[in-house]
């Protein structure tokens, strides 16, 4: 019964995407298995810096792409549910750096 409740309450994510509009901002989109789509727009003026971090837990290790938002205390995750590999995250990070003209984002990622 508990398993059925967990499956019923959890909304499986089908797709997450990020659309970078250099002069305007970033649109984050999440599509759920039920067909529901949630979009969130962040104006470019509110983004201080994109951050690519390595997350380590006792059982796994993965990379995460976040945005430091002006006036917010917490980082905003770009991909909230899915965990794309760093080979996919690095070009997105570089494009975000270019869009916000972040001079500090010139580090190389291997």
From TrEMBL:
<feature type="domain" description="Phosphatidylinositol N-acetylglucosaminyltransferase subunit H conserved">
    <location>
        <begin position="17"/>
        <end position="80"/>
    </location>
</feature>
<comment type="pathway">
    <text>Glycolipid biosynthesis; glycosylphosphatidylinositol-anchor biosynthesis.</text>
</comment>
<protein>
    <recommendedName>
        <fullName>Phosphatidylinositol N-acetylglucosaminyltransferase subunit H conserved domain-containing protein</fullName>
    </recommendedName>
</protein>
<dbReference type="InterPro" id="IPR019328">
    <property type="entry name" value="PIGH-H_dom"/>
</dbReference>
<dbReference type="InterPro" id="IPR044215">
    <property type="entry name" value="PIG-H"/>
</dbReference>
<dbReference type="Pfam" id="PF10181">
    <property type="entry name" value="PIG-H"/>
</dbReference>
<comment type="similarity">
    <text>Belongs to the PIGH family.</text>
</comment>
């Amino acid at each position: 019964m508990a398993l059925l409740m967990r499956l019923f309450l959890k909304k499986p994510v089908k797709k997450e995407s990020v659309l970078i509009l250099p002069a305007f901002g970033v649109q984050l989109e999440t599509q759920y298995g039920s067909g529901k789509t949630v979009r969130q727009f962040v104006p470019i003026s509110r983004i201080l810096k994109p951050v690519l971090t390595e997350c380590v837990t006792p059982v796994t290790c993965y990379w995460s792409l976040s945005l430091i938002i002006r006036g917010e205390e917490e980082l905003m995750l770009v991909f909230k549910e899915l965990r794309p590999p760093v080979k996919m995250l690095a070009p997105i990070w570089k494009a975000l750096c270019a869009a916000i003209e972040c001079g500090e984002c010139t580090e190389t990622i291997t």
